[in-house]
Amino acid sequence: MARTSDNRLLFTTGGKGGWDSAGWREIPGNVLTGYRPALRSLSGTGLGDKVLLAAVDPSGKLRTIQYQPSSGSFSTWSEPSNPAKLKFTHGPAIASDSTSYTIVANDASLGIQAMRQSSSGAQSYPWKQFAPSSFGGQFDLSAEFFHGVVRVFRMTYLNDTGFLEYSDLDQSSPASWRYVPGNSDARTAPSVALAGPDTLTLVSTQLTPEGEEPYYVNMGASGVWGNWHRVAKNQLDSSFPSVSSSNVSPNTHVYVIGMDGAVGVTAMKPAAGADSLTAAEGYSDSFVTVPGSVPSTYFRPTPSGPDWVASLPAGTGLNEGSWETQAGSAGVSAAPIGSGSSLLIARRRTDGRLYATLGDSTTTWPTFGWAPVPGKLGGSAAAPATTPYPPSAVRYANDVYVTVVGPDHKLYFQVYNLPSRTWKADWKEIVAGEAGGQGLFYSGPSMVVWNGTVHIVAAGADHSLIWKNPVIGASGDLVNRTEVIHLPGFNTTRAPGLAVFENRLVVVAQNHGNNLTHYYVRDSFGGSANWRNVPGTNFVLEDAPSLALSTASDGRAVLHMMFRSSSQDSVRYITASSLEIDSATFTTSAMRLLPAAKTSQEQVTTVSDGGLTKLFEVSSHDPQRPHALYELVYETEPANGYGMVWKDRYGLSYVPKSTTEVPLDGDGKPIPAPPGPGDPWVPPAPPPVNWFVFCLSGPAVPDGYLPAPDVDQSGALAQAQQFAKEQYGPSGWTLTPEIAPVAGKCQDQTFTFCASWWRIPPAPPLPNGAGGYWWQYASFQANTQAEAQQKALAYFTDPATHVDPAWDGYGPVPPDSLAPGLTAAQCQGGQGLSAEARAGTAGGR
User: Fold this and answer.
1) Over the stretch 294-305, which tens digit does the pLDDT of each residue have?
2) What is the rounded CA–CA span in Å between residue 91 and residue 62?
3) Residue 220, CA distances (Å) to 201, 250, 270, 383 in order
4) Which of 186, 414, 508, 586 has its CA 20 to 30 A from that of 320?
């Protein structure tokens, strides 16, 4: 029996003689549990040849159901008598002897409780307190009947160190807890079973110098514990081991859950004259996968929402060259979105913003070019999505997942649904747990789909490689698991390369200490003990390796590893043509130069498409496009030692870059171009936080509002200036901040006026004998010319704005003449003014 990521209970039956062809099935009754379930065969107890299952449901009730092996049928779920209304937390345990079974479970307030059901009924009792609630005891329990007594096992924490304890279940006296000796640091609750009549086996994940691994220890008939031993040679990490006894042989079966969700099993029996166990007949010292336990691909329901491409506003695609003016994008990732060559490409710009395009290299690229990936990191109250590192993209079922490490060094994801062509509203965080001890990542993520789940690896704050395996939730979200795995024995500051080859996860990364590139291989239940050197990579990598699977014309699968060094002007690659499973060692070619690839300025990325390998590089193939993105297509040829051969019949595909820096609104969606003169614009009500509005005006530019959200006004101004520059050209316009925007204000036209008036009393005659006329030039914004004229009259009759310093104080007077639409030079030349005013132009006033 196993619990799924969405808390359902599944079961299967079988063993070394074969497993049920029906595979894993759901236990009927729709009972959910968030804890480890328990089961026990009641054969030999006098209570019938059946299996008892117990689980704590979300309401805290303990529920039981029985399975009849002879018919393969279940009873209905029931609740044992519970007059005290106990509310249980964490997983229960079941132990049985020749006449009865005992269930123990943990109540959050009242401590560990026990109940017993006997075949005669005479020794039965309802729930009784076995041990009070104590510090650190809130974990799944385990129990076993051993040499005349039920022994209960639990895990406690003290100073962040896990300890294992046990006590005999005695209703006449309180629990007396004793430590299980020798455990270094328990990481999972214990699981116990009998490995023969005189051997009790306890299994728990222990923290060791090699990582978190399942270990076991045996108790003999005298109650003395032996030494701790590793369960199997597989390297398992946090795998939640569970051990059970067999009813058909004196074997102990140990089950684990791999990081990919698969269930593994091995069986052991006591070794003669030793405190250890040895592999049982038909099993080895490694875990093997229980058939059918690899999770099937989950297709979430098609969401509703606006079509991303169809809803892109007019003006999203602006002018080519915007990427080039940004001096490159510093990060590209691609994922297939269907059969053939359709791709979704995510790209990071140098300002950290993320864009995407949908492409088909065999036909044409989309007319909309690139558009911002919508949403903000952590929700609508946060900042627009940016990242200091390249993104990663992968397809799972009908979704494309894009992951980034944000400016806060936390891990975020966004999801593009293929059938509906919609993005999620915002980026969401995948909680990193400890992640290098800091909960932070310091490289771009690498992502791959393996055995039905998504796997993500990135460098942590302590330079260790952090492996995350989130669960795909019902909404398509990446639901975090609490465990974090540090890939052993390796430190790096760069993102690794990831691939799945011969159903094994391959990690390629450069060592932080010696700059040598290594690879690491693991299956569902373990990995190679050591990192192995990639031959020929004795150079410093500029960024993450790129791994691509390919199928040669003879049907052979190969793995190409591509590298871009900081000192070489080309892309080089090495080909792995086979994998020796036991030693986890590749058969590799020599390092080779990738044909047709030019000077790659950024991290290269690859996509596998059957026998084709498609590489995307930002390069200088065209001097007029110094930071352009290109696609190159390669085939793998056996005659060339399974090398990559560029297929020039596909050409050198230039991926259009036709989207500029489009500002985002409060919901992280692109903002259309500013409205033209007289077009209505309504500011947001209420304005979102960090919303800044600028008035755009100029002789060759339609006046209009230009809204831009940012963390501060200076940043928003720079964003608005960039937009205006790419939309309307490098000059000829101005931006004026508007603190409280009002609809209709910024669209007003600019009206210019030239005014003249008498000076009273008359000034001394000018050299040409003219009287005391004065004129002044000013411009005003208004809805109409009449409204602007009123502003001009007010301006020109205000002593503070129009009176000459030599004026002797007789007060303002109405202008004699007010001429609209003149330039400053025309005004100084007296055009449009009265004859008297023009006569004063000789005075240069």
Assistant:
1) 767 777 888 888
2) 9
3) 9, 15, 11, 61
4) 414
